[in-house]
Specification:
The chain is an all-alpha fold. The chain contains one helix and no strands. The chain is rod-shaped and about 135 Å long. The relative contact order is 0.04.
């Protein structure tokens, strides 16, 4: 009589521990998933920052090229006045 009771008690304890272990595993898995999601979000944010930095660099290079180009021709100046006359203003 004692052996069947002991076996039943051990089986109940084993099932109880197995059930408790699943909850801990589920929490651990959820934490791993959350950590992976956070890592992916950080990678996406870093990619966005890199793209923005590249765009800023390209815009700066374009402005530098525009500034190094020769200036557009200035307004034509009137021909010099003949000697002895005042230029018109």
């Amino acid at each position: 009589m004692r052996k069947p009771f002991a076996y039943a008690l051990m089986l109940t304890a084993t099932l109880g521990l197995a059930a408790c272990d699943n909850a801990a595993e589920d929490r651990a898995e959820d934490a791993r998933d959350a950590q992976e999601d956070a890592r992916e979000s950080m990678n996406d944010a870093q990619d966005s920052m890199n793209e923005a930095a590249e765009q800023r660099q390209e815009a700066a290079e374009e402005r530098a090229e525009e500034n190094n180009q020769p200036a557009p021709p200035a307004m034509p100046t009137p021909p010099p006045a003949p000697a002895g006359q005042q230029p018109q203003q």
